[in-house]
Design goal:
Elements: H1 4-20, E1 34-38, E2 53-55, H2 58-64, E3 76-80, H3 88-107, H4 113-129, H5 140-155, H6 161-174, H7 190-206, E4 220-221, H8 223-226
Parallel strand pairs: 1-3
Antiparallel strand pairs: 1-4, 2-3
């Protein structure tokens, strides 16, 4: 289980990498990110495609800030408390992914899952290359296992050509099992595209189902209580 200080360190590493830039030339200064850890007593809530974390964009903030007065739009990540019980690499991956949404907003690019996946993949590779992940007991095998678990998600967005290229590279580098290679490529229809977008929006909203009935525990990470 990661400590609050460790989660803050991971976000700060993401911010540093955001300044130096990604392989596609995108770079920006990610603002300070607040973390809100929510406890759902007996009730489940998830982010997109089962993620246990969500970036609070302006739309989410508008809908739900009445329940969370400390949230700041585009500068807050809410996570399910049970995420902290998952394997360390899964926690790191979730935090990096949601910070990727903050990167998208600040860089003024489309805040899509595809662009967040690009950030997620490239930041994890940089953290592995710099040996930063070893301080959390994670190695290349752990990163490979994480990428394998995320591969189906990545493939849902590989109409993004740069993401498709990065996915092909990690499949080769980490020797991932890629079932898509065994299937003929099929271009989704317009109706499938629309249905997918609707599904993603619906799944994101599921994160906060029945929030008014939850007993919420808030652990806010701020620069003041972490020495930053």
């Amino acid at each position: 289980m990661l400590t609050r200080e460790q989660i803050r360190e991971i976000i700060e590493e993401c911010r540093r990498i955001g300044v130096s830039g990604l392989g596609n030339g995108r770079r920006t200064t990610i603002p300070f990110i607040k973390i809100d850890i929510l406890r759902a007593d007996g009730l489940d809530f998830t982010g997109v495609l089962g993620n246990s974390a969500i970036f609070i964009n302006k739309n989410t903030h508008k809908m739900l800030s009445q329940y969370h007065s400390s949230w700041v739009a585009n500068k807050t990540i809410a996570i399910k408390e049970s995420l902290l019980l998952k394997p360390t690499i899964d926690i790191i991956g979730a935090i990096v992914h949601e910070t990727g949404h903050a990167f998208n907003v600040e860089a003024k690019i489309a805040n899509t899952e595809g662009n967040a996946y690009i950030f997620e993949i490239e930041v994890l590779l940089k953290l592995l290359e710099s040996d930063y992940l070893s301080s959390f007991g994670c190695d290349k095998e752990d990163v490979g296992s994480y990428f394998q678990s995320r591969l189906a998600n990545y493939h849902m967005e590989t109409r993004n050509p740069y993401l498709a290229k990065r996915v092909d590279e990690i499949v080769e580098e980490f020797g991932l099992y890629n079932p898509r290679k065994e299937q003929p490529d099929e271009k989704p229809s317009l109706s499938e595209d629309i249905n997918y977008e609707v599904k993603v929006v619906s799944q994101r909203l599921l994160f906060f189902t029945s929030l008014s009935t939850l007993q919420r525990k808030h652990e806010y990470i701020s620069g003041s209580n972490l020495g930053y």
